[in-house]
DNA sequence: GGAATAGTGTCTTTTAGACATTATGTA
DNA sequence: TACATAATGTCTAAAAGACACTATTCC
């Protein structure tokens, strides 16, 4: 390829090289990039989120989303995956990670101009998390309780609200619900329970079954049955997630029509 | 509030203050935040996007999205609005701005670790843009042509693809289409044309009319009529956008079922 | 009046909600 | 056998696609 360049193009490459040699980002006011994780799971029949209690300044002692600074040799995506691995060691392969939004109000972090790229993660029923280095404690809390009661660090309340809205919306038109289930094989009732918990509604079992079964490529039947969780109940068929990326037409959460 | 603090809490505040006094972001490897804008409009019956030809290094001479560095006294949102104002002076009040995604692969910018927060903007039929300081030229191009033919700077092709997908999706369930129209009053045919151009499909006029009119709070009839654009055509009723924030049930773009 | 688009109405198919009915595994 | 949930089926209502038909305005 090089040998085909004419003089003008070589000059251009030289000029670009020359420009970069004298370019120094350090000249400008310092900025930094962090990543924050809204890690959702289902615990005790409630939608829960992982919070850590900050062990260091700033906002020492407050509950916050897990996260940290992005290193200059990694993408934000990689930083998010790294933090997720540290904070929720279990069942990483089955977890789901998606960029939510970037938060960048000046003054959102007292240490300086620090933007946070927030991610949403969905993980299966998890073991209890372990607190990291600069962390007093790490625990799952019901999202509802967090939003109503907690005094959260930075702008993390806003991030959690946005993340919750994202998860609720995405269950409608993407096959994310199985990401909450710890077993690759699950019953339709278990799947329905995920929807009910995340959306905070009751769904008609018959209609839910008909709907999810009608989505081509969403559920695949597998051998075997799961015994009922309730005494006297009938055992149920098992399914596993298939390969579709969108649900069409979508499932709708009751009450979403009034915004 | 202060007078209610006990000694322990005062100590905590002092400690936080002390911590911040010695904290210096400059200690860490330099990072920087930029904003890039995918400004969509409709020109010559096609969906178009604003590109600038870079006048300076890096990527000098290549076509790129308008954008620039975020200042430390402003939010990314404000930076985006500032850039939008500079690049598309016309009809700012009617334009729409929404965060798209943050791009942060190391190496995406040769100047160093620079993350870009991308925004999508929708603007009405615009005057020709004027090139800025470090810009050779600023022009609208049909999105289709850009994606098929152009050699774009940085990762801007990916941003444009993501932005296009976002706009197409959002037309389904939000009342964004009027943002493309330069007049606050418009006909249903004009509105339908927006959908057809953005989605790249033909829509049945009767069914489209029925659908948008059935969405409560989407369209409001106004006095007067608009003469036909075609000779011999019937004049049509005028509407203006109302106050709803979501369209339920959504309009669906034909062909979206197969992903 | 003719042309061309605006606007209305109708028929059919698909999908969702409500709910009755049957099936099956467990105590 | 009784019970509880799983799974299926039915009826109805809502919504979308196809398309015929009427209305209005401009030439």
SSE layout:
Two copies of one chain form a homodimer.
Chain A: H1 7-21, E1 31-43, E2 46-54, E3 63-64, E4 67-69, H2 76-87, E5 96-103, E6 113-122, E7 135-142, H3 143-149, H4 156-173, E8 185-186, H5 188-199, H6 205-214, E9 219-226, E10 236-241
The structure holds a DNA duplex (27 and 27 nucleotides).
* Biggest sheet architecture of chain A: 7 strands, mixed
Give the averaged pLDDT of chain A, no decimals.
90
Structural class of chain A: alpha+beta
Give the chain pair forming the largest contact, with residue counts.
A-B, 50 and 50 residues
Count of alpha/pi helices of chain A? 6
Task: Note the run of SSEs of chain A as H and E.
Answer: HEEEEHEEEHHEHHEE
Radius of gyration of chain A: 23 Å
Looking at the chains present, what oligomeric state does this protein adopt? homodimer
Any idea what the shape of chain A is?
globular
Q: N- to C-terminal separation of chain A? A: 56 Å
Low-pLDDT runs of chain A = none
How many E strands of chain A? 10
| Strand coverage percent of chain A | 25-35%
Estimated helix fraction of chain A = 25-40%
Task: Summarize the entry for a quick read.
The structure is a homodimer of 259-residue chains. Chain A has 259 residues and is an alpha+beta fold. Chain A has helices at residues 7-21, 76-87, 143-149, 156-173, 188-199, 205-214; strands at 31-43, 46-54, 63-64, 67-69, 96-103, 113-122, 135-142, 185-186, 219-226, 236-241.
Any descriptors?
homodimer, 259 residues, alpha+beta, 7-stranded mixed beta sheet, 3-stranded antiparallel beta sheet, 6 helices, 29% helix, DNA-binding
């Amino acid at each position: 390829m090089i040998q085909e360049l004419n003089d003008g193009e070589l000059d251009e490459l030289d000029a670009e090289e020359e420009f970069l040699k004298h370019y120094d980002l350090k000249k400008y006011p310092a900025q930094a990039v962090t990543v924050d994780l809204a890690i959702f799971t289902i615990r005790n029949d409630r939608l829960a989120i992982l919070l850590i209690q900050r062990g260091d300044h700033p906002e020492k002692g407050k509950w916050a989303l897990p996260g940290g600074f992005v290193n200059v040799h990694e993408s934000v995506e990689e930083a998010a995956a790294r933090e997720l691995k540290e904070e929720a060691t279990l069942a990483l392969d089955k977890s789901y990670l998606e960029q939510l939004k970037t938060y960048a109000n000046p003054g959102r972090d007292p240490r300086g101009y620090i933007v946070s790229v927030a991610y949403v993660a969905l993980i299966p029923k998890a073991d209890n998390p372990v607190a990291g280095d600069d962390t007093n404690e790490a625990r799952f809390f019901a999202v509802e309780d967090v939003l109503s009661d907690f005094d959260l660090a930075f702008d993390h309340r806003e991030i959690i609200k946005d993340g919750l809205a994202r998860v609720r919306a995405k269950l409608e038109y993407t096959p994310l619900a199985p990401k909450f289930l710890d077993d690759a094989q699950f019953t339709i009732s278990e799947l329905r329970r995920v929807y009910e918990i995340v959306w905070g509604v009751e769904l008609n079992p018959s209609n839910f079954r008909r709907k999810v079964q009608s989505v081509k490529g969403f559920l695949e039947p597998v051998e075997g049955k799961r015994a009922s969780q309730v005494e006297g109940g009938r055992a149920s068929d098992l399914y596993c997630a298939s390969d579709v990326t969108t649900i069409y037409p979508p499932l709708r959460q009751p009450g979403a029509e009034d915004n």
